[in-house]
């Protein structure tokens, strides 16, 4: 299917999210859509997929003008989109979600649907239990399910908005294989929205670059990465250097802790992190690193062992009590655990006030968030809701809501969804905290990031903390082997 977008415009208040974008996409190709945070990528794709209407401009499919009023309408016209944050319904079963949004709401045929879903899963090597509930699936599996729903619905054009943030390396390979097959063998038109330039290089044949709502460039792939970065930012952004580390007093001490939930048991973890250290946790998704982080935050109670914060035994303290003692935790699920989509930025500021008194001083909250919006370069206003912000700006908001003085900062995928320049800005802010003596523990799926940003790295594999290495003495290859369980 040939897609043409002509002069698409969309404005939100003063923000020109899409400012006259025109582009043409051919069938059988994979296109990359690039641009810094807030450039207008998701907005453009939501317009193409019927999620929201443009203010003006036209869409042509195979030369015919179309106007979609809903994602369901777009899907029956051949356009399907996998959103940046999944839209499925967690308490439902896989099979029910699959049937959702189908044209024939009445007389749902479970038997036929089951057969169809099994057939699709077989074709793309996806293994999913049809009777499991959505909340028991990993993010990667939820994506696979959504992809199958779109394909069964007749999608000829498939849009994937940052599909590889938060899924495992294996799931990523599976996803990329399916994408290649869909384009090369089935002639579909694929669009990958991503900040990971190596992924765009690996998968796409062509890239479009947006900046401030406009198309500023397009190129065939391969194209030198520096050139792509220049197109995105106008010039290659400098990378900040990690300041030297001078260990202070111990901040976090974990002694022989056993942390378990229904799915995974992590036994006998011990480590000590001094003030000012940046400590990376590496491992495949679900290897135990998240248990450790949540255990330190007070969100997962250890079955055995002790956890000390600045010398004080906090093993049985709640999250709130640990917060007051100077710990903070930043979850990966931005809109699930971190922010509340319908609340404004000012309201978020009021919610995180340390005093938690009954009366809210709204003027004070407004002043405070205004300062933080500019300090953290958030594109948004105090009265914007968190849900209106672009993905990268939501991530910045999470950081903006942290307290000033912290002893311990626990971060899950801190730069998820950030473009390279924004990610670097976040690390500069984290370096400043480190210099003030904050100990930082973080999980990342990006081994380059772990090696570049950490002082020490703990390697997790299969529910064990297998060893601790010095970041400057290891390489991506070596770390990759250790994560896979090889010495
Ligand atoms: N529903 C909305 N209401 C108000 N402003 C919005 C809305 N949707 C998008 N915007 C604004 O439009 C601009 C473009 O946002 P968009 O989500 O398209 O960016 P993006 O390129 O996808 O960025 P990211 O890489 O951070 O996901 C941003 O400034 C954003 O705040
Ligand atoms: Mg986006």
Blueprint (SSEs and pairs):
Layout (H helix, E strand, L loop, with lengths): L2 E10 L2 E11 L4 E5 L6 H8 L7 E6 L2 E3 L4 H6 L2 E4 L11 H6 L10 H14 L15 H14 L4 E5 L7 H16 L4 E5 L3 H7 L2 E6 L2 E7 L4 H9 L16 E11 L4 E10 L3 E5 L6 H9 L6 E6 L2 E2 L5 H6 L2 E4 L3 H5 L6 H7 L10 H14 L15 H10 L7 E5 L7 H16 L3 E5 L3 H7 L2 E6 L2 E7 L5 H8 L4
Parallel strand pairs: 3-8, 3-9, 6-7, 7-8, 13-18, 13-19, 16-17, 17-18
Antiparallel strand pairs: 1-2, 1-4, 4-5, 9-10, 11-12, 11-14, 14-15, 19-20
Helix pairs in contact: 4-5, 12-13
The structure holds adenosine-5'-triphosphate and magnesium ion.
The site of magnesium ion has 6 residues, from helix 1.
Molecular structure report:
The protein is α/β, with parallel strands linked by helices and 487 residues long. It has 2 domains: 231 residues, Rossmann fold (3-Layer(aba) Sandwich), CATH 3.40.50; 234 residues, Rossmann fold, CATH 3.40.50.300. It has a 6-stranded mixed sheet, with helices on both faces. A 6-stranded mixed sheet has the order 16-17-18-13-19-20, with helices on both faces. Helix 4 packs across helix 5 and helix 12 crosses helix 13. The chain is globular and about 70 Å long. The mean pLDDT is 89. Bound molecules: adenosine-5'-triphosphate and magnesium ion (MG).
The value of Rg in angstroms is: 23 Å
Helix percent band: 25-40%
Q: Sheet with the most strands?
A: 6 strands, mixed
The count of helical stretches stands at 17
Brief rundown of the structure:
This protein has 17 helices and 20 strands. With 487 residues, it is an alpha/beta fold. The protein has a six-stranded mixed sheet with strand order 6-7-8-3-9-10, sandwiched between helices. The chain has a six-stranded mixed sheet with strand order 16-17-18-13-19-20, with helices on both faces. A four-stranded antiparallel sheet has the order 2-1-4-5, with helices on one face.
């Amino acid at each position: 299917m040939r897609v043409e977008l002509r002069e698409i415009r969309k404005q939100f208040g003063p923000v020109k999210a899409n400012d006259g974008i025109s582009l043409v996409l051919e069938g059988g190709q994979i296109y990359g859509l690039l641009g810094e945070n807030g450039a207008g990528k998701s907005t453009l794709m939501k317009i193409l997929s019927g999620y929201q209407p443009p203010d003006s401009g036209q869409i042509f499919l195979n030369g015919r003008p179309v106007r979609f009023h809903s994602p369901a309408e777009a899907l029956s016209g051949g356009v399907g989109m996998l959103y940046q944050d999944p839209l499925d319904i967690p308490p439902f079963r896989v099979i029910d979600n699959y049937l959702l949004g189908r044209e024939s709401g009445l007389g749902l045929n479970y038997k036929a649907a089951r057969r169809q879903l099994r057939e699709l899963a077989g074709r793309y090597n996806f293994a999913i239990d049809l009777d499991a509930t959505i909340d028991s699936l990993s993010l990667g599996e939820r994506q696979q399910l959504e992809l199958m729903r779109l394909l069964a619905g007749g999608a000829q054009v498939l849009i994937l908005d940052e599909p590889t943030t938060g899924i495992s390396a294996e799931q990523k390979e599976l996803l990329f294989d399916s994408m290649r097959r869909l384009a090369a063998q089935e002639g579909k038109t694929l669009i990958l929205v991503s900040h990971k330039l190596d992924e765009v290089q690996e998968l796409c044949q062509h890239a479009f670059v947006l900046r401030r709502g406009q198309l500023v460039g397009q190129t065939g792939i391969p194209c030198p990465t520096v050139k792509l970065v220049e197109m995105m930012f106008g010039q290659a952004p400098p990378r900040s250097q990690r300041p030297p580390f001078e260990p202070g007093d111990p901040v976090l001490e974990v002694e022989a802790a056993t942390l378990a939930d229904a799915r995974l048991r992590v036994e006998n973890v011990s480590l000590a992190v001094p003030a000012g250290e940046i400590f990376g946790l590496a491992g495949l998704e679900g290897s135990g690193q998240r248990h450790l982080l949540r255990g330190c935050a007070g969100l997962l109670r250890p079955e055995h062992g002790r956890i000390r914060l600045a010398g004080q035994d906090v093993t049985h303290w709640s999250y709130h009590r640990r917060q007051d003692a100077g710990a903070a935790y930043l979850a990966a699920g931005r809109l699930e655990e971190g922010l509340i989509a319908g609340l404004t930025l000012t309201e978020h500021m009021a919610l995180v006030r340390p005093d938690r008194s009954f009366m809210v001083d709204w003027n004070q909250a407004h002043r405070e968030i205004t300062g933080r919006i500019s300090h953290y370069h958030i594109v948004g206003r105090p009265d914007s809701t968190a849900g209106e912000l672009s993905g990268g700006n939501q991530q910045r908001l999470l950081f903006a809501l942290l307290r000033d003085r912290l002893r311990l900062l626990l971060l899950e995928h801190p730069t998820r969804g950030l473009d390279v320049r924004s990610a670097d800005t976040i690390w500069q802010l984290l370096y400043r905290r480190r210099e003030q003596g904050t100990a930082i523990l973080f999980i990342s799926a990006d081994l380059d990031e772990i090696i570049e940003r950490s002082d020490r790295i703990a390697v997790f594999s299969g529910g064990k903390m297998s060893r601790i290495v010095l970041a400057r003495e290891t390489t991506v290859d070596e770390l990759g082997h250790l994560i896979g369980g090889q010495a």
